[in-house]
Design brief:
- This protein has 303 residues and is mainly beta.
- It has one helix and 21 strands.
- The chain is globular and about 55 Å long.
């Protein structure tokens, strides 16, 4: 019987040592700081930011909600035509660098979708038209006008242009995509592919990009399964990944070295809600979760 108690005491001590060790590792990691910014905003599939304005887009692009990050308040929303979520999923929303008209207040909004019937993922480009009673000091409503559709190369085993997410680098003025091969029978299924394109002229209503239009393209040594929103800051591509069933992460990819520099387990920071949108605000990387929380992150690569 005494041996049974010895075993119990040993297991208890091992658990204490393990928990203490994990806690110390967590407390000593000062290279990542994640803080809560806001809560209970609105369910979202992706987001895009311009100045103090955060646009939260729902799955299927059914709704776009305008949120003021400065005063932490929803300003208005607009309902769009409900479309099939299997295609119009809203993989990623991002603002570009060009304006449709010179005096437009917002630049063009790019929302990437899944593949159509010929296996071309595509991005829809929208013009945002705000209204107010005081010269746009307080926006009271918005209108959305679709002005362009960008079709990416037909997905193949080689180009891995499946389930494309689109991010626009504000500094280089280039489109970056992260995507994967959707064919489960192939060896490279689910491997992350980074590609780069020039931003097409918005005055062409439909643009079809091909493999030869890629400025750069390479494979990363990480999975692209359950990739979520992303953004670019200081030459690093920040990509959210996962959900509550498979784990949730922030991947930091150095676009110059083409390497995955850091993979942050968000659950270690008490975040158990599926991550969705990623954006830059006040020089910080920020992200939303599906049920409307906003988090701010500082790392040794983003300071």
């Amino acid at each position: 019987m005494k041996y049974f108690y010895y075993i119990l005491i040993t297991l208890f001590l091992c658990n204490i040592i393990c928990i203490t060790s994990c806690s110390n590792d967590y407390n000593n990691d000062d290279s990542v700081i994640i803080t809560h910014f806001a809560d209970d905003i609105v369910n979202n599939q992706s987001v895009a930011v311009y100045n103090d304005y955060l646009f939260l887009v729902s799955i299927g692009c059914k709704d776009i909600v305008l949120y003021d990050l400065k005063i932490k308040k929803i300003l208005c929303s607009i309902k769009l035509k409900c479309r099939t979520p299997s295609i119009y999923h809203c993989n990623q929303a991002t603002f570009g660098v060009n304006f449709y008209l010179v005096d437009d207040y917002f630049p063009l909004l790019y929302i990437s979708q899944r593949a159509n019937e010929v296996n071309r993922c595509f991005t829809e480009v929208f013009r945002i038209i705000p209204s107010s009673d005081d010269g746009l000091k307080n926006i009271s409503s918005i209108e959305v006008e679709k002005v362009q559709t960008i079709y990416y190369p037909v997905m193949s085993n080689e180009n891995s242009m499946g389930n494309v997410n689109t991010v626009i680098d504000q500094e280089t003025r280039l489109i970056y995509t992260y995507s994967r091969n959707n064919n489960m029978e192939d060896d490279n299924y689910g491997v992350c592919k980074i590609s780069c394109f020039e931003i097409p002229d918005v005055h062409h209503k439909e643009v079809y990009l091909e493999d030869e239009d890629m400025i750069d393209s390479y494979i990363l040594s990480c999975s692209a399964i359950n990739m979520q929103g992303g953004c670019v800051k200081d030459g690093n591509l920040y990509v959210l990944q996962g959900n509550s069933s498979v784990g949730m992460y922030m991947n930091i990819i150095n676009l110059l070295s083409r390497q995955l520099e850091k993979r942050i387990d968000l659950m270690l920071y008490g975040i158990y809600d599926e991550p969705e949108g990623c954006f830059i605000y006040n020089e910080k990387v920020m992200f939303t979760t599906i049920h409307g929380s906003i988090w701010s992150m500082i790392t040794n690569t983003s300071r």
